[in-house]
Amino acid sequence: MIRRWTADLLLGVRLAVGGGGARTALVRLSLTAAGVGLGVVVLLTATSLPHMLAARAERAAARTPLPAAVAGVDPVQAAARSDEFRGRGLQGYLVQPTGPHPPAAPGVDRLPGPGEVVLSPALAALLRSPEGELLRPRFPQRVLGTIGEAGLTGPNELYFYLGSDTVAGQPRAFPASGFGGPPHRRDLDPVELLLVVVGATTCLVPVFVFVVTSTRLAAATRDRRLAALRLVGADRDQVRRIAAGEALLASVAGLVAGAGLFLLVRALVPAITVSAFRGGIFAADVVPDWRLGVPALLALPLLACAAAVFALRRVVIEPLGVVRRGTRLRRKLWWRLLPAVAGGASVVSGLGTDDPRNPLVVAGVVLVLAAVPVVLPWLVERVAGVLGGGSPAWLLAVRRLQLDSATAARLVSGIAVVLAGSITLQGVYARAESDRPPEPDVRVLVTAFATSLADVQAFTTALHALPGLGDVRVETGGTLRNAAGETASVVVGTCAALAIADCRDGDVYAGGAAGPGPGERLWFGTARPPGPPQWTIPAERYHRTGGQEPGTLFVTTAALATATGLGLSSTATIPAAGPDLVERVRNVVGWTGSVDSLGTGRDGTYALITGVLSVGSVLVLLLAAGSLLIAAWEQLRERRRSLAALMADGAGRGMLARSLLWQLTIPVAVAVVVAVLTGLGLDWLLLTLVVHRPMVVDVAAVGLLAAAAAAAVLLVTAATLPALWRSTSLEHLREE
């Protein structure tokens, strides 16, 4: 029996290669393999995501300075710096070696000393380019070298190690004797988890829909071959096994083609510079997880064979020909609703843990989205059945849909699934954005660290010299600590800036009864540094006032004349600034402070999730449009004789093109309605029942997504016009 099954499968493979003419068979096999191959690329890329994220996290942890002492290693004073240049993240460390044997950082031959800097290749290239003109003032140091892959999370990351002799006195500086630590990952909140679950499902479900659609290309030609086999003695079970053999060859060819295309995509990944990938991705990181990839890839041939056999259930293949629905049976609706009902019930059953990763919730999302291509054939059949008269192009399209609505529904099912998932994602986006606090009115907040009053004056002068910032108010303050460990805030400024009546330069004012007293010896900062006190409050110029903030010390600049090792921060608020001005402000601040502009403080994890899923949704939409295009080409190839006959009877090419447009537009319109309702319903289930948040509908975004689906139809129709012109050639009237 096994030998007989093997022989039948091999016969199907041979017919797939040479049946119906070598050229025709090759075209048919290539189209099906292309569909399966695109699905393989998406699956391999998706299963590479865990390794990709883990590798980035491990390299990020490996370059983290560790404060633990190491024998034989001279620690370096290190201070992390996070900045931005024209919307791109710019991170690194300021380092100050304390001896000849500093610790080794990954990807760096040696850490830079004062006046030296080590740059990532992308940062070095940016500084050399004309686009980096406004960034160069921040890196006047001598470039010691570039950082290797071991010290970067991605090939396009802007990262640096900058040597300085003032790091030890800066806030948040610490001695580091080595690099490397455990990967740090922030736990995702329920809405972010929901984004991941829905996004992954939206990207993967259309792949399997596309594979099923691809294996049913050229169905009419295949059925005619199978009828010929029945004529020479094959039974019905053999016919099914032969059909499975044809699908098996196409799917295996698709696996090979998809693997080759994946290797090509993998090689091109480092060139992707979109901000969503935060520094890009190394090609070596794109490694599929065999625990996920192998089962998914093995499932594709099985799915292809099952789809090919299942497609024969309503086709009677007899020795004298093929009969398709001798009596038209109306499709049943009840069983088509079962996946949607089961999906909704699965989501509801997963309540109680409030975790979108719950397998029941994931299964529910998959079932609801998978219900879309199951329901579409029934709806398209019903809609086509009630459409009436119109222009010849309209009548031709409607009649074609009435005769074969299932093919049209399969053509648009991929787009419908992507659209439904994208609408669900958009609803979760809208909910996540509405949960975030509103951005403040302030556009830019500038903070600069100062170790002397001269630093404060230099920063103020440089900031006021920038265009439009001459009247910006600069406030200077910090924290004081006494010998008992008690801390108090300090505000430093001129009498005019402090706005205190009868003030004289050199006075000190304490807000209320609390706070440091006259003659008290203090240190700057929250941690007491080694050495004697840095400042003593002048007792003869000390005043208490009740009109100021309790516990805060207000100090005029002359009162700090005897202070040593100041640790103050100067802050300024800029209500509005263009991108170039913001970069000039950052140049003024340098690496002794920070500039937080509107949107800069957005959580990086959320930005990465939303960015990657947005890119993924676009790619899957392109995949769905590609499947629609391939299937449309195959439909034209199968119908070339009937199209040529219409052309011979006087139907113009323009009328045939409009008919083709209507044949795609009607199913897509039905698919858009189903997708919108499914997406909104899934949104309500997930947001209301799983994460317990009210549903937010972004009507404009939903409309834009629906318009994108319609645009895909127009583009596919335009791309099929050359094939339509060839298909209407009168040469196709000849017998083949």
Question: Could you outline the blueprint of secondary structure elements for this entry?
Answer:
Layout: H1 2-18, H2 22-62, E1 65-66, E2 76-85, E3 88-97, E4 116-119, H3 121-128, E5 142-146, E6 159-163, E7 174-176, E8 178-179, H4 190-214, H5 219-231, H6 236-268, H7 290-310, E9 315-318, E10 321-324, H8 338-349, H9 359-386, H10 392-403, H11 405-435, E11 444-450, H12 453-464, E12 474-481, E13 487-493, H13 495-498, E14 508-511, E15 521-524, E16 535-536, E17 542-545, E18 552-556, E19 568-574, H14 579-589, E20 593-597, H15 604-638, H16 640-648, H17 653-690, H18 699-727
Parallel strand pairs: 3-6, 4-5, 13-18, 14-17
Antiparallel strand pairs: 1-8, 2-3, 2-7, 4-6, 9-10, 11-19, 11-20, 12-13, 12-15, 12-19, 14-18, 15-16
Write up what this structure looks like.
The protein is 51% helix and 14% strand. By secondary structure, it is α+β, with helices and mostly antiparallel strands. Strands 11, 12, 13, 14, 15, 16, 17, 18, 19 and 20 form a 10-stranded mixed beta sheet that branches. Strands 5-4-6-3-2-7 form a 6-stranded mixed beta sheet. The mean pLDDT is 79.
Number of helix segments? Answer: 18
Main beta sheet: strand number and arrangement? 10 strands, mixed
User: What is the SS-derived class?
Assistant: alpha+beta
State the distance separating the first and last CA atoms. Answer: 36 Å
**What percent strand?**
5-15%
Oligomer: single chain
| Residues in helix, % | 40-55%
Record field, number of beta strands? 20
